[in-house]
Inverse folding.
């Protein structure tokens, strides 16, 4: 404790018992437990003639006894409670936070917080399985699995098909890892991928990629509708086709027209369902998912059954050519009717006469036999050896079985064969298959409904990708091992009587797959038509693309009507394309571009390592993100290079349009963070305004004290600044030389070189700036105001505590300190004051254990949370643990506060031990009263001593040389106007008047000292001393062995008369602690739970 702790005065003695308790009471003081305040003679004396100003520390004319802001335990902080609230009130607001719905107003706006208080909200209860895993499964599994995977395997072969699936799955897995890092870097509001990308890369990229993602989701609706219509017309009710053709070459054109008509009607039906009752779409999601799971299980069951009892699906072959079985009654050239052999229906297709005689037949038909092979030979048949290799064919080619010998005669007829409907290639198959692995962001889209999104999103998404990847890869092998190659290449099942090819393998019936896949595609289409308008509405409400503003409007119930109509119109364009194989690559482009920028966002944030980048998901790396980005880019050009170029041009045009319109949105994105490390262009952008909370990093202005030899007095201050380098911010080292610039320019250059040399030794990367000023405080003010350039300006001032201010007769040291505190407060800068800086560790030391203790009394922007995290990135503090203490008052629920604080730190991604210290109202102790009295007596005594000393020093002042050498000073001593001096010469002549005046002065001085002995302490100062003493007791009790204690720094008094008392309060608050960092926020948030 201080040197005055055991002092004795005329009013009483403070005794410390061996246990350290303050036990004795001063005379004339009584304690009233019911009032919890000092009463009796003291309270009466406050109203008599000896009463001083009501409060030299604070103008509290509006003070009311019951005001919670004037709690005795937090009296030191009461002046700023309106801007720096108690931690308990902050935590209660954070505990009531709920994520906003997709398309809602920007989640950082304060209005939403107040709205959340008024309207009761449903607490999110969805876990990982129901909230993320199953929705991801439903969105990933889709129409491609049932309609095209067998064709991909048959065309590309098992090996290449396996490679296609593996590449696509690797792409989504790497993207999921990057997405998990972004999604766990704070609370992700419901809004999904668009919010993640836009808040990570900025409005330009966010708008461009957001629209691409919207278009991808819209075209996905078209793809699912086309898939459902294909299942309906080809496999369920083929007779429902409106357009028909007997010519095989024209039949595909007729099918496209059917798809357009039925697809448009089906789109209108789904849009009406979404428009009328979107809640029913979500309710039926479970049914649609059940259809998918049952269908997949039926495939595995059929594959297992085929190993011992393969299903009977004969395929009719003419030579090595596959015949369509849709119009064939029997797989033979002839058939037996009674005892007669007559031509079969097949004969009539290849010959011009139904009689054996005088018939002219197709030459290939004449020279080759008609045979029947097993379409599903089964798992044990060894057919996989034939299906390992690719068999790419041009459009119109006949599907053949290479292993079957046949005549080389080609023949002329082809309409009864199974033909290739599209020219296939490896790149085309990649584009067609990729949509089947999309949908990985379904979990992040539901983040507002999750109980613990930061835990559920990574686990659920990655498990869903692993599950679907296993299903796809295993199905590639199973299809190749169970199904004949010509059947695999038969896209529409013409060789197996029009059955869905994957259905022929399933058990117990092909209809399980047909019905299941139909309902799953319907459900997926509804989900796309539900999500896409809301995505467009979110983009429109962000107002980054002005012409989309109209689509931000919605019905009274929040449904985006106009956005739904635009979505339907765009989906209609996809339906008019009419071909699933042509729509899928377009869909792939948009999703690949979206995934590319998710990987880019993660890589950029990881390489920048901004202070806000603290993902709870640890298993990410910038190299993985770059690999995912490269795969996405490669897949775009592999699947369709011209589509890729068109998609990039569209995205680029949107980007430039948003930039041209002036996207004045600030979301704390990575591009803005990157600007902090750039030059002219970045500086111009940074001047637009203060950085977002997510981009906030400590830009330090370190104020150094120089001795008379221009050497740094406390080099450990620079060491401490270097240990905050994880903040990746600017460091400016400044100091002041008192004097005239013209005369002291050389000293300034020498001091600058000294500081730069020390900065190199301490590995501080930054700039040095010295100011020559007539007065020290003016020089400090100039540094604080003018350091930096544009957006590269300091936001935090670092300085040392003025040690020995009590012992110094010169008050300028601590007055300069308080003046600096006031200047930083006025400039809205954060302030770090290192007390006992000489005990701080050097960069060569390394703590093997210990704690960094944070005492969070009031909330002033979150600096107390951010600083220990940054220190722990340095090797000196890396092995220390963070402990966070906060204070609970009598009205606070300490158990709930601890839970809320733990939740708050969890969302901040900061690992720390939490403890709530209870400080109930207690009577003001004798020690507090005595300590306050001694503080006030000392201040009054020093004022009187300074006046008498001035008188005594008058004659000495006369003999001083006016032109004495200019003494170089620095922070800590200032030759300014604070000490009153007399410049005029006074000729001391002893007269009677002088004698009488001298006697009067002495009498007045004696009266002053008598008043000093009879004074009573000011009540408000007693309360502040009570706060300092009580807080110091609990801090020393809990943190006396801590390696570093971080503590809220109370604000300076508004009335300068209380400055010296303020210094005393801070001394009492930090007594008994080895290393203390007093932290005062700049008034803005520096840390956020948001992503």
């Amino acid at each position: 404790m201080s040197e005055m702790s055991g002092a004795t005065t005329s009013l009483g003695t403070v005794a410390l018992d061996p246990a350290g308790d303050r036990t004795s009471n001063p005379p004339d003081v009584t304690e009233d437990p019911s009032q919890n305040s000092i009463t009796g003679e003291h309270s009466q004396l406050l109203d008599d003639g000896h009463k001083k100003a009501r409060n030299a520390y604070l103008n509290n004319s509006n003070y009311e006894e019951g005001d919670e802001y004037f709690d005795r335990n937090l009296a030191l902080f009461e002046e700023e409670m309106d801007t720096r609230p108690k931690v308990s009130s902050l935590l209660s607001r954070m505990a009531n936070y709920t994520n906003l719905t997709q398309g809602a107003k920007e989640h950082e706006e304060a209005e939403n917080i107040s709205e959340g208080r008024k309207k009761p909200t449903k607490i999110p209860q969805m876990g990982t399985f129901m909230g993320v895993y199953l929705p991801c499964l439903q969105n990933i599994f889709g129409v491609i699995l049932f309609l095209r995977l067998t064709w991909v395997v048959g065309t590309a072969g098992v090996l290449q098909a396996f490679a296609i699936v593996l590449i696509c799955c690797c792409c989504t897995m790497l993207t999921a890892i990057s997405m998990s890092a972004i999604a766990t870097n704070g609370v992700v509001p419901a809004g999904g991928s668009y919010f993640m990308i836009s808040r990570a890369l900025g409005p330009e990229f966010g708008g461009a990629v957001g629209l691409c993602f919207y278009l991808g989701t819209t075209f996905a609706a078209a793809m699912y509708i086309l898939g459902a219509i294909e299942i309906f017309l080809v496999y369920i009710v083929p007779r429902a086709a409106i357009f028909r053709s007997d010519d095989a070459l024209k039949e595909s054109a007729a099918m496209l027209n059917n798809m357009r008509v039925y697809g448009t009607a089906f789109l209108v039906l789904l849009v009406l369902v979404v428009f009328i009752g979107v809640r029913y779409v979500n309710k039926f999601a479970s049914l649609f998912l059940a259809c998918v799971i049952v269908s997949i299980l039926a495939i595995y069951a059929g594959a297992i059954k085929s190993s011992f009892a393969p299903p009977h699906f004969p395929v009719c072959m003419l030579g090595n050519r596959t015949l369509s079985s849709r119009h064939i009654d029997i797989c033979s050239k002839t058939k037996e009717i009674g005892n007669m052999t007559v031509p079969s229906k097949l004969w009539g297709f290849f010959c011009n006469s139904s009689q054996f005689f005088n018939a002219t037949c197709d030459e290939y038909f004449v020279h080759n036999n008609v045979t029947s092979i097993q379409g599903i030979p089964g798992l044990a048949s060894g057919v996989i050896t034939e299906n390992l290799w690719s068999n790419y064919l041009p459009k119109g080619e006949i599907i053949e079985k290479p292993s079957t010998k046949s005549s080389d005669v080609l023949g002329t007829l082809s309409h009864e064969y199974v033909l290739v409907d599209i020219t296939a290639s490896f790149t085309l198959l990649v584009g067609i298959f990729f949509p089947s692995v999309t949908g990985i962001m379904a979990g992040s889209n539901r983040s507002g409904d999750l109980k613990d999104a930061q835990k559920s999103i990574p686990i659920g998404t990655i498990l869903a990708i692993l599950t679907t990847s296993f299903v796809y890869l295993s199905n590639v092998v199973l299809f190749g091992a169970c199904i004949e190659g010509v059947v695999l290449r038969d896209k529409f099942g013409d060789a197996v009587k029009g059955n869905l090819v994957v259905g022929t393998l399933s058990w117990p019936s092909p209809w399980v797959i047909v019905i299941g896949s139909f309902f799953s595609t319907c459900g997926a289409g509804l989900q796309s038509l539900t999500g896409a308008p809301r995505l467009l509405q979110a983009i429109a409400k962000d107002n980054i693309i002005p012409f989309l503003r109209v689509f931000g409007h919605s019905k009274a119930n929040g449904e985006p009507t106009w956005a739904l109509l635009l979505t339907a119109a765009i989906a209609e364009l996809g339906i008019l394309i009419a071909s699933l194989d042509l729509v899928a690559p377009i869909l792939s482009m948009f999703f690949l571009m979206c995934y590319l920028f998710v990987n880019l966002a993660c890589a950029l944030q990881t390489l920048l390592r901004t202070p806000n980048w603290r993902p709870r998901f640890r298993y990410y790396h910038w190299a993985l993100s770059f690999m995912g980005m490269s795969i996405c880019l490669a897949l775009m050009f592999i699947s369709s290079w011209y589509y890729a170029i068109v998609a990039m041009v569209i995205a680029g045009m949107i980007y430039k349009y948003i930039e041209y319109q002036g996207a004045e949105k600030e979301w704390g994105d990575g591009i803005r963070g990157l600007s902090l490390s750039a030059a002219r262009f970045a500086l111009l952008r940074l001047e637009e305004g203060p950085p977002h909370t997510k981009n906030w990093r400590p830009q330090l202005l370190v104020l150094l004290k120089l001795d008379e030899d221009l050497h740094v007095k406390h080099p450990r201050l620079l060491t401490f600044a270097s240990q905050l380098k994880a903040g990746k911010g600017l460091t400016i080292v400044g100091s002041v030389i008192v004097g005239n610039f013209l005369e002291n320019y050389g000293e300034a250059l020498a001091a600058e070189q000294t500081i730069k040399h020390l900065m190199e030794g301490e590995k501080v990367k930054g700039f040095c700036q010295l100011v020559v000023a007539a007065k020290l405080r003016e020089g400090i003010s100039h540094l604080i105001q003018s350091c930096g350039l544009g957006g590269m300006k300091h936001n935090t001032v670092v300085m040392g505590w003025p040690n020995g201010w009590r012992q110094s007769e010169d008050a300028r040291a601590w007055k300069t300190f308080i003046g600096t505190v006031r200047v930083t407060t006025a400039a809205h800068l954060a302030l770090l004051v290192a007390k006992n800086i000489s005990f701080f560790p050097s960069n060569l030391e390394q703590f093997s254990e210990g704690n960094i203790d944070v005492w969070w009394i009031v909330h002033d922007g979150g600096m107390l949370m951010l600083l220990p995290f940054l220190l722990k990135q340095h090797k000196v503090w890396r092995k220390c643990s963070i402990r966070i203490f906060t204070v609970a008052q009598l009205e606070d629920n300490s158990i709930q506060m601890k839970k809320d604080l733990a939740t708050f730190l969890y969302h901040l991604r900061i690992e720390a031990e939490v403890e709530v210290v209870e400080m109930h109202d207690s009577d003001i102790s004798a020690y507090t009263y005595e300590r306050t009295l001694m503080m006030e007596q000392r201040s009054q005594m020093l004022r009187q001593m300074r006046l008498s000393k001035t008188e005594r020093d008058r004659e000495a002042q006369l003999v001083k040389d006016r032109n004495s050498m200019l003494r170089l000073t620095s922070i800590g001593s200032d030759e300014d106007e604070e000490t009153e001096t007399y410049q005029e010469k006074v000729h001391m002549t002893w007269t009677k008047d002088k004698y009488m005046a001298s006697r009067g002065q002495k009498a007045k001085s004696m009266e002053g000292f008598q008043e000093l002995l009879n004074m009573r302490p000011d009540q408000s100062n007693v309360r502040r001393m009570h706060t300092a003493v009580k807080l110091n007791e609990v801090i020393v009790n809990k943190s006396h062995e801590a390696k570093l204690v971080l503590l809220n720094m109370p604000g300076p008094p508004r009335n300068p008369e209380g400055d010296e008392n303020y210094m005393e309060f801070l001394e009492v608050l930090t007594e008994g602690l080895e290393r203390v960092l007093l932290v005062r926020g700049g008034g803005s948030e520096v840390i956020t739970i948001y992503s």
Summary: The CA atoms of residues 34 and 201 lie 59 Å apart. Residues 314-374 form one domain. Residues 1-70, 100-119, 674-678, 947-988 have pLDDT under 50 and may be disordered.
